[in-house]
Amino acid sequence: MILVEPKRILITCATLEIGGIERSLLSLLRALDPARVRVDLLLFAHSGPLLTELPPWVRLLPEAPALATFLRPVKQTMPRHPLLALARLRAKRHVRRAFPCPPCTADGAAFALLQAYWDGALPLLPRIKTKYDTVLSYQWPHHYAAFKVRAEKKFAWVHTDFRQAALSRKKDADVWRQFDGVACVSQGVLEGFAEVHASCAQKCFVFENLLHPGELQEKARAFVPTDMPRRGAVLLSVGRYCYAKGFDNAILICAHLLAMGLEVTWYLIGYGSMEAELRAQIARHCLERHFIIIGKRENPYPYMAACDVYVQPSRYEGRAVAVMEALALGKPVAVTDFPTARAQVTDGVDAKILPMEPRAAAETLAALLQNPGELARFSRAAAARDVSGFAQLEGLYTQLGA
To answer: How far is 99 from 199, CA to CA, in rounded Å?
Structure first.
């Protein structure tokens, strides 16, 4: 028997905070075969509760102080890394000129800020000395893997609809040219990315987020939520509190449902920069008893198991991990009609796709809540659907040469 040496892989990501990208990375790591790949993981900052869930065979590289500054305030960065702090300040000035009004209606400025910061900071960052067979850059921006890592093959992951990102496409293309393959988490994401970066279309392929349904079901049985009292129909949403996720519209949908005479309680799990704005909006509409922010939860799955319908009210998504997790738990799902929604669910078969306009969304959601037969049919379809994505692994090994 000829023994084949495992391929040496470096995977880069920002942190292991609670989020869809981070959870999908953990699912990928747990699915990989250590007999075929030997994985080093480079996190820009060793932070996040999901750190404890790393498989023991994955080698976590030491934190690089210069990379960790990307996740820390400028005041903390200035004493030891003044040039990196100045690079961030220059990036902020650049974005303020590009976005003269507060970016309250888009996440575009956040994309532009990260791009400008990485463009300016890249010369100041250390290189990885080890040469790898392959590097997988799992989270945008991909500058570090593109220019600071030596590898025979380079792959980058796309988790969002790039048509929504306010970036310098020319500068972004300079980064993408360094990669041999671009893994898109859905067909809709691939189409959007190829529209923005047509020159990269030939090296794009779909690799959907992996899930471990058995593990999710076990976590869902861990406890019964006591902070989720049942008043009428119970709805749940999970995600970052940001413009893309559309939770401000969810509040309006909830108000319309109540105005129609439906008794509903809508719970929101997550965290993010829009929390104060969301709480103020809830108070303006007098929804304190009906739209309830629970906050960050390391294990959101008992809440998913307890809800009647999981709702994803996003304006845009790549492939919503929380939607697939809800399906894995056999829950009826409703999603807004964001551009990549139909690449993830099939309207009327395993989910209900809602109009983007809040009143129309409420009317469609109300019809679903009042149709027990359709809710039961969605649950059966969700339970029967294979959402693990494990069938893709052999194709990924082929890409990696493993």
So the answer is: 28
Identify any residues that bridge with 136 across adjacent strands, giving them in sequence order.
Answer: 11, 155
Positive or negative, the Cα torsion across 248, 251, 253, 255?
A: negative
Judged against a pLDDT cut of 80, whether residue 83 lies above it is answered with yes
- Do 181 and 235 sit in the same domain of this protein? no
Burial tier of 323 (Cβ tally within 10 Å: 0-12, 13-18, 19+): buried
Cα distance between residue 172 and residue 7, in whole Å: 29
Alpha-carbon gap, residue 268 to 303, rounded angstroms:
10
Nearest 5°: the CA angle 113, 187, 392 is 105
pTM over 0.85: yes
With beta carbons less than 8 A apart as the criterion, state whether 324 and 347 touch: no
Q: Quick check: helix, strand or coil at residue 301?
A: helix
Collapse the DSSP code of 373 into the 3-class scheme (helix H, G, I; strand E, B; otherwise coil) and give the result. helix
Domain range for 186 is: 7-64+126-210+390-400
Beta-bridge partners for 240: 271
Report how many domains make up the chain.
Answer: 2
Are 105 and 277 within 8 A, CB to CB?
no
Q: How far is residue 102's CA from residue 277's CA, in Å, rounded to a whole number?
A: 14
Nearest CA to 333 among 291, 374, 290?
A: 374
Average pLDDT, the chain: 92
Do residues 9 and 136 make contact, with C-beta atoms less than 8 angstroms apart? yes
Whole-number pLDDT of residue 343: 86
User: Residue 110 above 90 pLDDT?
Assistant: no
Q: Is the pLDDT of residue 106 over 70?
A: no
CATH (domain of 201): 3.40.50.2000
Helix H or strand E segment including 156: strand 150-158
Same-domain status, 197 and 220: no
Longest dimension (CA), the chain: 71
**What are the beta bridge partners of residue 264?**
233
Strands 264-271 and 233-240: parallel
Task: Please provide the size of the chain in residues.
Answer: 402
Q: Determine, yes or no, domain membership for 101.
A: no
For 315, phi then psi, to 5°, come to: -80, -35
Query: Which band of pLDDT confidence, cut at 50, 70 and 90, is reported for residue 72?
Result: confident
